[in-house]
TrEMBL record:
Organism: Roseinatronobacter alkalisoli
Pfam family for this entry, one: BPD_transp_1_N
Protein name in UniProt: ABC transporter permease
Domain ABC transmembrane type-1: 96-306
Gene3D superfamilies per UniProt: MetI-like
Membrane topology reported for the UniProt record: Multi-pass membrane protein
CDD domains tied to this protein: TM_PBP2
Segments crossing the lipid bilayer: 12-30, 98-119, 131-156, 176-197, 237-263, 283-309
């Protein structure tokens, strides 16, 4: 187990380094680079930009800049925002709770509903429910998230007036009920695609578990069908879903970016787009690294959990 953990941990570190290098290279390839915001300022001449570049260390070779940035990153210095002069970690920390709340709510909705749909679809294979669930999943996977958001705003906010069209809460009302009222629509919209994915994977995993010999043996012994499904089938079908939970995190982060933009939700996705608009590259790079750390950590934890549940994985 120790060897497995060390191997997975070293792979995670290598992947994180690769992500940081690619992110650093891409940001420097953008026209204007980190000094793009100054290039648009008509009050600055080339001498001013050269002086600022020297002050920020941007006149040095790119590989030197990268190692300097990476070393400061390891020490907890993620840079300073061009936009407001605050430390990048401070800027990001203000928006993390909103994104985690949105992603957590969407995950609970997707896992609970998707698992139920997948199990029922597998146990009632080729039924009307199974066909309807399959068609609905294909539709959810084919339509962009922002379209669901706009449709939801049109019907539930503008036409029916049941739910607010955006923001995280109503100014002047900080009650829990008000937060939940604003959370309903963005979390459901973000969860729709993941319900489809989770239900399809759960259906396949359940069908695979049902075909196993131990399930046939339990049925031959006269065990009630409901007990066979809940004790023998579901437990084994959930094993590959643990890995899926870790893999789904990048998709959740991407979906959160779109959902937060549509619903003006003050999370990391909205901060990312705003920072790009202001050419605030230290914050953009900080968000990239924070997302990478979050995603890689989730995959590492998922691997560890699967290894603990299934010892065969440790030898892979």
């Amino acid at each position: 187990m120790v060897a497995f953990l060390l191997r997975r941990f070293s792979q995670s570190i290598i992947l994180l380094v690769i992500v940081s290098i690619l992110g650093f290279v891409v940001l420097n390839l953008i026209p204007g680079g980190p000094l793009a915001q100054y290039a648009l300022d008509p009050g600055m001449n080339q001498d001013d930009r050269t002086r600022i570049a020297a002050q920020m260390g941007l006149d040095r070779p790119h590989w030197v800049q990268y190692f300097d940035w990476a070393w400061r990153l390891l020490q907890g210095d993620w840079g300073t925002s061009f936009r407001d002069g605050n430390p990048v970690l401070t800027v990001i920390s203000r928006h993390v709770p909103a994104t985690l709340l949105l992603m957590g709510s969407a995950t609970v909705i997707a896992v609970s509903i998707g698992t139920w749909i997948g199990i029922r679809g597998a146990t009632h294979r080729y039924s009307v429910f199974d066909y309807v669930a399959t068609v609905a999943a294909m539709i959810a996977l084919s339509i962009p998230t922002f379209w669901f958001g706009l449709i939801g705003i049109y019907f539930f906010s503008l036409r029916l007036g049941w739910l607010p069209a955006g923001n995280m809460y109503t100014i002047g009302d900080g009650s829990l009920l008000n937060y939940l009222h604003h959370l309903i629509m963005p979390s459901v919209v973000l969860a729709l695609v993941h319900i489809a994915i989770w239900s399809r994977f759960m259906r396949t995993a359940t069908l695979d578990a049902i075909s196993q010999e131990f399930v046939k043996t339990a049925r031959a012994k006269g065990v009630r069908e409901r007990r066979v499904i809940m004790k023998h089938v579901v437990g084994n079908a959930l094993l590959p879903m643990i890995t899926l939970a870790g893999v789904q995190l990048p998709s959740l982060l991407t979906g959160a970016l779109v959902t937060e933009t549509v619903f003006t939700w003050p999370g990391m996705g909205r901060l990312f787009l705003d920072s790009l608009g202001y050419s605030d590259y230290p914050v953009v790079m900080g968000l990239l690294m924070f997302s990478a750390i979050l995603t890689i950590s989730a995959n590492f934890i998922a691997d560890v959990v699967v290894a603990l549940v299934d010892p065969r994985i440790r030898l892979a």
